[in-house]
Write a structure and sequence with these properties.
Largest sheet of chain A: 6 strands, parallel
CATH class of the largest domain in chain A: Alpha Beta
CATH topology of the largest domain in chain A: Rossmann fold
Largest interface: A-B, 71 and 71 residues
CATH architecture of the largest domain in chain A: 3-Layer(aba) Sandwich
Strand content of chain A: 5-15%
Distance between the termini of chain A: 55 Å
Shape of chain A: elongated
Protein name (chains A, B, C, D): 2-hydroxy-3-oxopropionate reductase
Pfam families (chains A, B, C, D): NAD_binding_11, NAD_binding_2
Number of domains of chain A: 2
Order of helices and strands of chain A: EHEHEHEHEHEEHEHEHHHHHH
Oligomer: homotetramer
Radius of gyration of chain A: 20 Å
Number of helices of chain A: 13
Helix content of chain A: 55-70%
CATH superfamily of the largest domain in chain A: NAD(P)-binding Rossmann-like Domain
Family (chains A, B, C, D): Belongs to the HIBADH-related family.
Structural class of chain A: alpha/beta
Keywords (chains A, B, C, D): NAD, Oxidoreductase
GO molecular function (chains A, B, C, D): NAD binding; NADP binding; oxidoreductase activity
């Protein structure tokens, strides 16, 4: 069993920390929100008063934070506090250059780091069915695998530091793009008087088949956009994808256009809806909203 | 058993007509290419010297032609020659307004019409595993169903005249778009030093999962672009999708951009490669070709 | 002085034909609308009962028609009726392949053809200040120059048959694109609390300077979108630009995206407004409408 | 006469500082590059050994630095060193949120701040003909105006803190977009056999007229891409424009696509060429390179 410091007990972090505690690990958790910490205690964890206290005595520290800014701030605190040998696993979704910065800062103090963002959302976290994309050394991945298996169903070591974040970015650009394409297909079908249910059934049976169609087409046709994964979060993730492209010096025209459609959904006031609400943007552009 | 006139015995039409003959139907076929007609005869069909001869005495006429221009020309000949009550099934991929024109022209003479484009390509035609998207009346669809079942695996009546073409257009815009998105993901992964095999494996396990990934990711990573479905044909289909959008008075920004990427693949000399060669365009844009 | 048949006496053709009559030419005009023909008679022209009558005895026939379909139909009638040696000048804005078809059809009967689309709109037609882009032979251009000088201020022979239409397409894609870019600049300025008047004044003083800014920025900031040149017409012209690109086998990504924004303006119900109403699309996408 | 600290004596800063010294101001300059400082001394300025020394005793500090990172670093040093009442003018091109951060940090110490990015490039700096876009308070703008007049020809106070950077971003998105549109026009003209010189002459005479056409069309047609303003710098500026849009919560689809075309030019190895080399990207996409 491992002594784990866990910082960031939000919608994702809370069930993840609880799963680790339930698996028998010692989980000392901290979050700015006191009720979040109390919830972990109720689930068998230990309350920490701040990041430093969560780090002290831990073999592994896991961070699950909203964005780059928090990872730089909390990551800095962890590194300042930690003893050499600690394994720091950042499971937040951030820019690859933030992952690189974190790893370089940590390595100077003898601290090991993995970037391990996840996909699968709140439901995946609660059901311990996340996909986990891990960047860092093979040795550190091996050391962490047992913990990852408590949290997720698909666990892949994809490459060196930052690779986890790049794969997450690639995932989100493909998901966002497919949502946009399915939205355009629905608008075209409906505008020409074709039953979208029958039309998308055909698409789902051929080369156009995809999981977005499988899981979301009925809700999209019914305009039911309860999240799921919110537009606000996908907007953040498209920003990361474009930042990763800029850093990698590649040009991704579809990704760039998808990012603007997601930004439009948010600007139109749909940031709190499921990302399938991209459909509302194509509708607005087609005068059908 | 049905007496069928079949006009257009190319890569797709040839195996389709042969399947119908093998199923016991009387198939009288015509193509401008004499060897194509001989091939049908060898498969149990009957040679027609021209379109008129294929039409004469037929209960059903099937056309499988390259593009709108040929459908208007041959369709006009069929209508001129046919007796009232004939069922004309155009299985070519053309613009919805061509399907509408064909149906309106035919109805004036008491001829029934279905638009029934297919997806699945040469392999699907040869294995009788096509997806067939049918527009027209329910009665005509019912009458034709037995023939469709000889040719395809997924057979859906999607709506009134033109609906088959609209669904085919929707299918092709989604397929083209996903090929573009997967291409952008591959370029991003490779440019950042992430193993694309491992990276795409993760994508294929989550919400980004799609059939293009399943069937084509290994070949794309290996840059093996033997067709399959050629860029030239997808370029034609993206033109149809945009024409359908214009007719429907909707705006489809992703479709429009995908169409330019496909046009670029063709302009760069890759028209004869599989449509997954969209990857070469993203590579060129990223200075990686 | 020249005997001219003039077919198409709409918003553009009416003042053009009147200028030619006022310059002393014999102008025999036809339009489907009887009042349009009467208006020409009042301006000194002669009424023709149909296209054939306008063509008979003419040295030059000018057509000024809404779109490709009418040019093919009326052009066919002119060619059928005309004597060898006639000079047919199509001043409509159509696809380059329509211009090529018209010229090839005419040449077979010994009829000379120029494609000579214009820019400058209704105001330019009324003030005889049009820009005229002419495709065809140098000899035919020289023969027609005197007539063009009655109608326009900028008259350029840009190349062989179809070249006039290509230059018009290039003009419209640049104008549409600049309208879109200025719209995005206005939305960015306003959303950040910057006075758009002051901001655009700076742009108009540097490398970003352009005639759209000069002529339209005040009206755009005030949301005054009386035409001017209507979105409906620009939508038609963007379709021509993309058709020209497809025929030329080039990829024009910005043009394709601009075409969708123009299509969106139309779909949103703004087809009758000035093309600067592209601003409303960017506003809608930014949740600011 | 004013005592000025000037930090950042590169291609832009060097002639600017020299102009201020020549106008009789006391200019104490610092740059990491010793020769740059010596050049200022030769032009009548005074050498500073570091930022702190440039700040000491100054009434006004001007910074002219490459990017956000340096502005945050040097700006922090200036604020740490300065006495209340100092006027800090950042003339670098950076993100609006960096301008906001700088102003807020400075205001807490009683230091006044203007953001005052410029356009006009090296030539504009050398000829004291820059356009200067100023954000900040009216009083501070008035205080600085005399200095700006030594450096530029167009000087506009566009709004509160950050506004200068937003206007610069708007300028660069319009310039980049027009370069892309003119590139697409050239490729379309050339691919259809139309003389681009004659074609663009027509465009320059109508509503498509713009300064990019006036200044750069001959060089673009001749494929002469000596800078001028480098692709590398425009790539940085498009990143700022998109960051500004994200911060402002607006969606700018054309800007996003232009940014990818500029990124492509850079990825293709043309970062050191003039930004009109965007033409090479459209050529590559059209198979004409």
């Amino acid at each position: 069993m491992t002594t784990i410091g866990f910082v960031g007990l939000g919608i994702m972090g809370s069930p993840m920390a609880a799963h680790l505690a339930a698996a028998g690990h010692t989980v000392r958790g901290y979050d700015r929100s006191a009720p979040a910490v109390e919830k972990l205690v109720a689930a068998g964890g230990i309350a920490a008063a701040n990041t430093a206290e969560a780090v002290r005595g831990a073999e592994v520290v896991i961070t699950m934070l909203p964005a780059d800014e928090q990872v730089r701030e909390v990551g800095g605190e962890v590194i300042a506090e930690a003893e050499p040998g600690l394994l720091l696993i950042d499971m937040s979704t951030v820019r690859p250059d933030t992952a690189t910065w974190l790893a370089e800062s940590a390595h100077r103090k003898g601290i090991r780091v993995l970037d391990a963002p996840v996909s699968g959302g709140q439901a995946g976290a609660e059901r311990a069915a996340l996909s986990i994309m891990v960047g860092g050394s093979a040795a550190d991945f091996t050391a962490a695998r047992g913990l990852f298996e408590v949290l997720g169903a698909t666990i892949v070591h994809v490459g060196p530091t930052g690779s986890g974040q790049v794969v997450k970015a690639a995932n989100q650009l493909v998901v966002g793009g497919i949502l946009g394409l399915v939205s355009e297909a629905i608008v075209l079908l409906e505008a020409t008087g074709v039953d979208p249910v029958a039309g998308l059934d055909v698409l789902a049976g051929g080369l156009a088949a995809n999981r977005v169609l499988d899981l979301k087409r009925a809700a999209m046709i019914a305009r039911q956009f309860q999240p799921g994964f919110r537009i606000d979060l996908h907007h953040k993730d498209m920003g990361i994808a474009l930042a990763a492209a800029r850093q990698a010096e590649v040009a991704l025209p579809l990704t760039a256009l998808v990012a603007q459609l997601v930004a439009a959904a948010r600007a139109m006031g749909h940031g709190g809806l499921d990302h399938s609400a991209l459909l509302t943007v194509v509708e607005a552009l087609s005068g059908r909203s």
